[in-house]
Structure formats: structure tokens, C-alpha cells
Specification:
With 183 residues, the chain is mainly alpha-helical. It is built from six helices and no strands. The protein is globular, with a radius of gyration of 18 Å.
Length: 183
């Protein structure tokens, strides 16, 4: 889809949402619901799942550079209202805590994963409002460049963001299973 130019049409209804994000979220929900009781959900160490979220530091850094290049509005970066960079830095801290201390309450990790999904939902809301309701953030809010609908930019909503959501959901499934088993 990134090479066809299909996603460069930024008119309403939002093609990214309808043809990329929504189908991937539905897939994640169905896949994890069907596999939540399988043993493989417990085999990946929780520290690995936690550390995985740190890749978002690089993504948010790239977002800042795309603002400088004129592809994105600053609202969707740390310069605006997107605090995913801060959350991603907590992934490193949480990983160290998980590795060094087996005593970290699983509820803390569970809440941290729910917070991660919430941050992603806020980012989606930021992108949608900046694109379709730019005056919400003030006059002369520059809308996204159409090039954001091309490769490699489509990797963010089409692969990287859903992979972060998938790992959060897998972590939640794993932690809930641990609680259920009384570990």
C-alpha cells in the first residue's frame, strides 16, 4: 500500500485507520483471544517483552526529524503532545527492575502495559485530530505531507505501532496467567 500511493490521500474517511490500523488491531485481538491459553504465551521472558518497547525511543526520535523535514506537524512528537518518548524510556527502567529484582509486583507491570496501550491510543488520537481537526490546536496548523503515506513512513502505523500493541497485549495475557496460577 505504501508504494501504490493509496495512503497518500489524506481526505476523510481516514484510509490509514480503516485499511491499516483497524484491521491490525482486530487481528491482534482475535489472535490473542484464541491463543491466550496456549503455553507459548508463557515462554518469552517478561524482561524481553518489556525491553521490546524501548524501540519506540528510536521511532519518536525519527518523528522529531520528520518534523524538521516538513512531513509531520510537531503536535505528534515530543515537541507537541506525544509523550511516547518518555514512556519508551521507562521501558529501559522497567527492564532493569525486572532483571535485577524478581520482587517487582506483577500488578505494576500490568499497569505499565495498560499505560503503554493508552499512550498509543493517545498518539493515534493526536494524528487524527491534527490531520482532520487542525484548528483544534490553533490557527495555521500545518497538515501532514502526503509523503507520509509512502514507504518507509507506512511502516510506523502498519508494522511498528501494531507490534508494540501486540507485545503489550502478550505481556498482559502472560501476567494475567501468572496471577491466575498464583505465582
Amino acid at each position: 500500500m505504501g508504494e501504490s500511493g493509496f495512503l497518500t490521500d489524506l481526505s476523510f474517511p481516514p484510509r490509514y485507520m480503516l485499511f491499516v490500523i483497524l484491521p491490525l488491531f482486530i487481528f491482534i485481538g482475535i489472535f490473542m483471544k484464541k491463543n491466550r491459553k496456549n503455553n507459548w504465551t508463557q515462554t518469552i521472558p517478561i524482561a524481553w517483552l518489556t525491553f521490546y518497547q524501548s524501540f519506540r525511543i528510536a521511532i519518536e526520535t525519527i518523528f522529531v526529524f520528520t518534523v524538521a523535514a516538513g512531513f509531520l506537524h510537531k503536535n505528534v512528537t515530543i515537541e507537541g503532545y506525544n509523550y511516547d518518548f518518555v514512556y519508551a524510556c521507562t521501558a529501559l527502567i522497567m527492564t532493569l527492575i525486572v532483571i535485577r529484582s524478581k520482587a517487582i509486583p506483577k500488578k505494576v507491570l500490568l499497569l505499565w502495559n495498560y499505560l503503554g496501550i493508552t499512550v498509543i491510543l493517545i498518539i493515534i488520537l493526536l494524528f487524527v485530530t491534527t490531520l482532520y481537526l487542525p484548528d483544534f490546536f490553533g490557527p495555521n496548523t500545518k497538515i501532514f505531507s502526503k509523503e507520509f503515506g509512502l514507504y518507509p513512513y507506512v511502516l510506523v502505523p502498519g508494522f511498528l505501532m501494531p507490534s508494540a500493541v501486540f507485545i503489550h497485549v502478550l505481556s498482559i495475557v502472560q501476567l494475567k496467567k501468572i496471577y491466575k496460577n498464583g505465582e
